[in-house]
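Weekly modeling sync, notes
Attendees: S.R. (lead), two postdocs, one rotation student

Agenda item 3: backlog of single-chain predictions. S.R. asked that every request posted to the team notebook include the full sequence so nobody has to chase files. The rotation student volunteered to paste the first one in as an example of the format we agreed on. Action items at the bottom.

Example entry:
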Amino acid sequence: MTPDAPQGLDQLRGLHLPAETGGAQGAVMLAIALGFTAALVLGLVRLLRARRRGSVRRAALADLAAANALPPERRRVAQAQLLRRLARTLQGDAAADAQGDAWAAALDRLFATTFFSAGAGRIFAEGLYRRGAPEPGPVDAELARLFARIGA
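Predicted structure, as returned to the notebook:
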């Protein structure tokens, strides 16, 4: 035996446990867990909203392609119905029920453009059956461009 070794059990020293950390460590862990959970929920909500917007965009573009396959007279009516459905889906009933200049302004707000109040898209606010309607090609192309930007 070494000279430092205790001779009997009564000379052994007790174990020293680490000092009590208190409730602070538990509170910190709880805050970290809550922060992680909040970030996870926020990310999930943003993902679901993005998917919803993406599905609205895909459906609108598919409906627009179907409308563009119609003859010019029926095409404008189908496009106008699609614009009403889209406004109702994205902005609510009040926007979709607007008429005339208010309808053009609602569409301009929806798509962040002036196409419906100052451009060829004015036909959707002034009257679909008016003679001398603009050429369908540019209107169709602009609608496709605007629909592709939904939710982007």
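Discussion: group reviewed the output briefly. The mean pLDDT is 84.
Action items: rotation student to repeat for the remaining queue; S.R. to check formatting next week.
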